Amino acid sequence: MIEIIQTDITTLEIDAIVNAANTSLLGGGGVDGAVHRAAGPELLTFNKTLGGCEVGQVKLAPGFNLAADWIIHTVGPVWQGGTRGETELLRSCYINSLELAVSKSYREIAFPAISTGIYGFPIEPATNIALTAMKKYEHTFTRIIACCFSEADRGVYQALLD
Length: 162
Ligand code: ADP
Prior knowledge:
The chain is of the alpha/beta class and 162 residues long. The protein has one domain (2-161): 3-Layer(aba) Sandwich (Leucine Aminopeptidase, subunit E, domain 1). 36% of the residues lie in helices and 20% in strands. It has helices spanning 30-39, 42-47, 86-103, 123-136, 151-161, and strands at 2-6, 16-21, 58-62, 70-75, 108-111, 143-148. Strands 1-6-5-2-4-3 form a six-stranded mixed beta sheet, sandwiched between helices. Helix 3 (86-103) runs parallel beside helix 4 (123-136). The longest helix is centred in the middle third of the chain and has 18 residues, at 86-103.
């Protein structure tokens, strides 16, 4: 069953959290900034070896000081009105993260609301993309978590799941 929770994703004790990073993987605002602060400076040192990440793709990093064992970095699309492939790219973020987790035999994964902050993807279509992807993998994981930061986002996720 998909769990919808409202918390800081960096506090989760889980196999893997997904980070909504940017193409440099060298840190940023929002959830990315929180992940770097909580994981500690070793994350930046490690990420410098990764060579960045394309939009819609994923790169794996250890959790370092996080309670999570692993960080799956993914780069969401910047919303540009919806005609620049944003939907397909956001779907790729979710599917590629889930496939990477499956390939590593992780049993627990948590996602933030990728692209819906600084990158401006409207929350309702983004949530539908997230939940549709997560539903496909519901039975593959022991925990599959949509981690919302705001009460408003949690309400949208819950309404669209129901
Ligand atoms: P993007 O650049 O992909 O839009 P943001 O980090 O700006 O990424 O926003 C993505 C989502 O992550 C937003 O819903 C934002 O409220 C949320 N968020 C920000 N900080 C955290 C956090 N510590 N834990 C979980 N979600 C967070």
